[in-house]
Every structure is written in C-alpha cells, then in structure tokens.
C-alpha cells in the first residue's frame, strides 16, 4: 500500500469513520463549519477519495451517500508505512517517545503498550540500521 492521502482528505475520512455513512449535504455542512472549506473544495476531496477507493459513493435522490472503504485499521498501516518511509529508522524511537509524552492514555492503554514492548524485546536487534541511504 503506497496510497497518498492529503491532510484534508484525512479529515474527511475521520468524520466518516466516526459518523458512519454520510450524505454529501451533511458532509458539506460539517466540513464548511469546521474548516471553512468551500462546497467545491469538499466535493473535490470527496471525488478524490472515491477515485483512490477510500470511499464509496451512491446516488440517493439529489445527493450522494458516502461510506468508507478504507478501514481505520488499513489507514493506520498506511500511516506506519509513511512514517517508516520518511523518518530515519534510528529516530523512530524518538517519535514514539514524543507520542507517548504528548498524547493522553488510560492506564489500560499504557499497560497494553508495555505488553507490546515486552513482546518486541524478544526480537530486539543489537543495532538499528539506518534506512536513509
């Protein structure tokens, strides 16, 4: 998966993931209010997401219904691959530390992260290779 999704397109996807299937009219109302985007900008974003096969579009009366084809799980995989492609392998640990420091987590979330780290220790390498060159 090497799909490129713009920041604006991610915002559209987040709304559809949270709200479920949406009409174009409802999406335009929400996105105009939240981001001050024009109707034509929103329609362009929706068309791009359909073209990229992230959304499905069905005609319903005078508007369209949009629903997600790209799952949140698949989107997470895209983000992970994007980070791995853009960031030096030796610096990923710093990004992880920054995310842990700057984001809110429940105790259960942190315990889950500790489990992931404990499992990863079994396959730890002696030195992380640089992927920059």
Break the fold down into its secondary structure elements and pairings.
Layout (H helix, E strand, L loop, with lengths): L6 H13 L2 E2 H12 L3 H13 L3 E6 L2 E6 L3 H15 L5 H11 L4 H15 L12
**Structural class, from helix and strand content?**
mainly alpha
Assembly category: single chain
Strand content: 5-15%
Helical residue percent band = 55-70%
Count of individual beta strands: 3
**Measured on Cα atoms, how large is the radius of gyration?**
19 Å
* Neighbour order of strands in the largest sheet: 1-3-2
Give a nutshell description of this structure.
The protein is built from 6 helices and 3 strands; from the N terminus they run αβααββααα.
Write up this protein:
By secondary structure, this protein is mainly alpha-helical. About 60% of the residues lie in helices and about 10% in strands. The chain has a 3-stranded antiparallel beta sheet with strand order 1-3-2. A hairpin with a 2-residue loop joins β2 (about 55-60) and β3 (about 65-70). α2 (about 25-35) packs across α3. It is elongated, with a radius of gyration of 19 Å. The two termini are about 20 Å apart.
């Amino acid at each position: 998966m090497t799909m490129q999704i713009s920041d604006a397109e991610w915002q559209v996807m987040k709304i559809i993931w949270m709200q479920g299937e949406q009409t174009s009219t409802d999406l335009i109302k929400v996105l105009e209010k939240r981001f001050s985007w024009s109707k034509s900008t929103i329609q362009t974003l929706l068309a791009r997401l359909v073209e990229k096969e992230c959304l499905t579009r069905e005609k319903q009366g005078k508007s369209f219904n949009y629903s997600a084809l790209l799952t949140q799980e698949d989107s997470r995989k895209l983000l992970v691959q994007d980070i791995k492609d853009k960031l030096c392998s030796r610096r990923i640990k710093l990004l992880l530390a920054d995310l842990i420091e700057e984001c809110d987590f429940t105790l259960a979330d942190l315990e889950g992260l500790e489990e992931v780290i404990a499992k990863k220790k079994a396959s730890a390498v002696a030195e992380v290779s640089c992927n920059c060159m």
